Amino acid sequence: MPVTDTRAFYRPLTRELVALLRKLPPDAWNRPTIAGSWLVRDVVAHLVDTTMRRLSFQRDGHPPLGPDPPPQTERDFARFINELNATWVTAARRISPRLLTDVYASVSADLAAFVESLPLDAPALFAVSWAGEEGSVGWFDIGREFTEQWHHQMQVRDAVGAAPIAETEWLRAVLQIAIRALPHAYRTTAASTGTMVTIEISGSGGGTWTLRRDPARWSMWHGAEPQATARIVIDTDHAWKLLFNALSAQDAARLIQAEGDRKLVEPFLLARSVIV
After folding, report:
1. Alpha-carbon distance 206 to 199, whole Å?
2. Which of 119, 159, 163, 224 has the fewest beta carbons under 10 Å from its own?
3. 117 by DSSP, 3-state: which?
């Protein structure tokens, strides 16, 4: 799997969202989104929060607020993150759409400038937990943050009837980062060493990857394996929605094409590239 460098994409991506927000009529801010119970204004408030958190913790060295007691399981950590997000979103309902936009425009420009200065090979500030990592390389953490900015903007665009983000290179980068959730999603799936599952994400910006069962774990490889035990095909629009928790496993099961051992398909339907 090659390194995916997303640093140069932050600035144009966030500018796209600012331009969209400045044109929204007042009623659009209260439209529902595919992000659960969040309205458009809640998704934007969440982006303001995560952007400020990243700058505070990584650029400015401000100590992050941790749970007390420390989480013991993935579920404990997810609960803490979800509560952190919900607290901010609720408080931000006091803030006007215009001010939310102004704040996001400012902090997202600061974030772009900061990530452009970061090395790819330095240790990450935060491990990418949805990939099962206890320590990550910098480019993966930077890429994870980029996928957050990208998929939340897509949620806003979907809710207000705006055209999806058109830049194919950004979508390709998002999928190259997000697909790295699969070895962790398959971690409890029993299979003999050498078993392989090929995943094809079809359409512009897509690609093909293969999961391989090694003696101690599953690993991810770029490209197809003709002798794979199972093969999954899904289009780019449904792939990103599934991986970012906007498409249920049940709905995804009806939308994919699958061949081979069914038990090797089911973990893919439960894979998520966000903390849930």
Report:
1. 10
2. 163
3. coil
- CA-based end-to-end distance of the chain: 25
* Domain spans of the chain, in order of start: 7-166, 180-270
Q: Enter the tokens of residue 69.
A: 């007691």
Residue entry with tokens 């794979």: 228
224 φ/ψ angles, rounded to the nearest 5 degrees: -95, 155
Look up tokens 């390389």; give the residue.
137
Which residues lie closer than 8 Å to 131 by C-beta, 6 or more apart? 140, 180, 181, 183, 184
CA–CA distance, 5 with 167 (Å, rounded to integer): 15
pLDDT in the model for residue 74? 84
Rounded-to-integer distance, Cα 124 and Cα 227, Å:
36
Asked whether the bond before 69 is cis by omega within 30 degrees of 0, the reply is: yes
pLDDT at residue 131, as a whole number:
96
Reported confidence tier of residue 70, pLDDT bands at 50, 70, 90: confident
User: 0.85 exceeded by the pTM?
Assistant: yes
User: In this prediction, what percent of the chain has a pLDDT beyond 90?
Assistant: 92
123 close to 138: Cβ distance less than 8 angstroms: yes
Q: Which CATH number fits domain 180-270: 3.30.1050.10, 3.10.20.740, 3.90.320.10, 2.120.10.30?
A: 3.30.1050.10
DSSP structural state of residue 32: B
